[in-house]
Amino acid sequence: MDQASGLRIRMRERSETRGQSVKKRSFPPVPLIKVHLRLPGSDALAIPANSLVWHWHSVPRAATGWDLQARLHVCGRPSQFRAIELSQWRYLCEEWHLLGKSPEPLAVADIVVLWLPSSGAPALLPPLRMWLHWLCRNQPPIPIILAGITAAIGRRLTRWATAAGVIPEDYPLVPQEDEAERLALPRQRGYYRLLQMCRDHPAQTELQPDSTSMEVWR
Known about the structure:
The chain is α/β, with parallel strands linked by helices. It has 2 domains: 1-34 and 47-110 and 191-203, no CATH class; 112-187, no CATH class. It is built from 6 helices and 9 strands; from the N terminus they run αββββαββαβαβααβ. Strands 8-7-6-1-5-2-4-3-9 form a 9-stranded mixed beta sheet. Helix 3 links the parallel strand 6 (111-115) and strand 7. It is globular. The protein starts with a helix and ends with a strand.
């Protein structure tokens, strides 16, 4: 697989879709931005194909590349990319997944995905309480998905969080992804906040269109 094959696949798929729906809309939809947080002991993240996966951390040189499931990987901080690049990615991927080791990406989240240990052990309650408490105090009421566990455990944890006063009763803590997306879409602003980050701190490569490296993620 050469380094441009993922791009060719996505461009072909999007071109076919665009040809079928060109009469319905002129621009691609604003991507839904999901920020993933992993609690200790959680399993590997499950990111769907044909998505953008942003590895949000400092790197000497920003990089982008495709994996074998047509996922576009972006490595670096927003200040290392140009606004025009985000516009291009918007055309390629309608769903964006942000991965980081700090709360910083939460500033642009439409949905927060908390990954828990699949065992649902009682040991996860303290870190879960900490994150939920922090999110409620520092974030607007955006949907939170409890992932990596069964639906039954998710419902029990939701009842526990509400009964224990960890989250308000009306806070959108939901076990189902489709329900979270339904709640997020009416006030979806993450993409525009991310775009503003790039504009406030423009990349030094503004006049060097080939500065970001391209590679294949296998």
